[in-house]
Amino acid sequence: MNYQHLFAFFLAGFTLLLCLYNRKSNILRDLILATNKDESKEDPRPFSFARVQLAWWSIIILSAFASVAIATRDLPVLDSSTLILLGIGVATKGFAGAIDVSDKMRNRLSKKHVQKKEHRTFLLDLMSDKNGASISRFQAIAFNAIIGVWFIIKVWNGLGDYPVVGQIIPTIDANNLALMGISAAGYLGVKTQENKP
């Protein structure tokens, strides 16, 4: 059995399932609705960077975990760096959601409806705040993309070398984890101002 193809199948399958579920539930979109210029209609909510980041890492790690478990016929022991990486995604989503809920309650009390931005495209939603493209968001997206692609390549190569068993799921250096944490903190710091009038 080609375990690399199995890994690709899991990546594609989990991504497709999440996209289909998002069409019905908006699981990857912001909590606060955007208001159309017409004021009587609501636009679709913009995509949420924090939710997409958590989905990105969940799909990659889940696909690697499932593929390695099938290849080795044993549950892989995840390195603490992988758990920390997933924890950064969970914490970013949690804090971003708390900021949105707080802003939503404040806006409701003041009878103002404020949304950081209107929905445009997937990538523009992720890269932009209410003032347009944001360097803090660009930085966070770039680091997540680079480290995520590196992670996928390492798992792919490890599964290709199987049954020569080394560590198939890679260890992420502490400095790279710190980089991810700093990027997430920068995004959250700017997000606190996004829904202000």
Which structural class fits the helix and strand makeup? mainly alpha
Query: Beta-strand percentage?
Result: under 5%
Regarding quaternary structure, what we see is: single chain
Give the overall shape, derived from the CA principal axes.
elongated
What gyration radius follows from the Cα positions, in whole Å?
19 Å
Termini separation (Å)?
57 Å
Number of strands: 4
Overall pLDDT score: 85
Helix content: 55-70%
Number of domains: 1
Tell me the number of helical segments per DSSP (H or I, 4 or more residues long).
Answer: 6
Quick overview:
The chain contains six helices and four strands, in the order αββαααββαα.
Please give a handful of descriptors for the protein shown.
two-stranded antiparallel sheet, 197 residues, single chain, mainly alpha, elongated, 4 strands
Describe what this molecule looks like in 3D:
With 197 residues, this protein is mostly helical. It has one domain (3-191). It is built from six helices and four strands, in the order H-E-E-H-H-H-E-E-H-H. The strands form two sheets. Strands 1-2 form a two-stranded antiparallel sheet. The radius of gyration is 19 Å and the shape is elongated. The mean pLDDT is 85.
